[in-house]
Amino acid sequence: MKTKALLLLGLCAIGLCTWDAQAVNTKPIPIIKFIKSEMTDPPQGYEKIDLKGTLMYGIGPNAIVAGASDDAVYIGFNQSFGYVNISIYNGMGILVYSTIVDTQIQPVVIIPLFNATSGTYTVELSNAFGYAEGDFDYNYK
To answer: Is 77 a member of any domain?
Structure first.
């Protein structure tokens, strides 16, 4: 009985090794393209930050949308700007936050305002092609 099982197992192994496998579906998987609607204002709950600067020229007024809420800053890129440095300064010009994002991969950035004191702040966006900046008021609650 043992030899029959080993013989059967051996024949199956030989059959698997010499079996010509065919692909069931050879059609390529279609690439799904999402149509991103251009955002003209920040989401509900965020007060719009008016951005000005050379990063905005020739691209359109809605290329970058920014807003501030009671607890965060929202920045949305309606197109890719490559790597962008995002900095936030307090009213005395002291840097309180800084990061670099790849806008091709991360078109939306939400920056929490932890431990921030009430006052006027400036958000600055910059890369090799220019900068944009805008002021916003933050009221600690």
So the answer is: yes
